[in-house]
Amino acid sequence: MAKFVDKSKVNTRYLETPFTIQQVETHLVFGPLSRHVPIAYLALLVGIVKLAADFSDRHVPRGQRIGGAVWDVLFWIVFLPFGLSRLTRRQQAIIVWGTVKFVFGFAAFMMVSIGGLGGLAEGHSDALPNLFLGLIWIPGFEFIPKITPHQKYVTIARLLLSIPCVYFGVRSGNWHWD
Description:
With 178 residues, the protein is mostly helical. The protein has one domain. It has 8 helices and no strands. The chain has helices spanning 2-8, 18-25, 30-36, 39-56, 62-85, 89-122, 127-137, 151-171. The termini are far apart.
């Protein structure tokens, strides 16, 4: 068993650079997480809640519910917590921070290019809210060295600026939660 544990260790020294440490430690969400809460436990909690939600959803076929439950157990309850638990709290936070930055960057780029500029070209009523929401959330400002220590305020400003964008997007009639 010790051989498997030794082989499963990942060389994670390259994760903890001064840049990533400063980015994570000064972040509004990931700073407290890196100091106080192992993200592996949060992934396990999300997996359990997701598993319960998949079983309770009666609007999908039984096979899809079972497939979703198997995925939830394998990925969210076994693989992700086990993989993250091998790392320190800071390394867990750095990995999740990088993943969130990539996902938000990709989603913001898609909102700007497809929803914003493409919507403006086709005359959609929700094009401007999509464009502004995408521009607000594109990662970039927080990487400027003088702004990095104050990136909590950048995140709060983004959240506050998102409120009118979401309001006007819902008012356009194309955004809804059905």
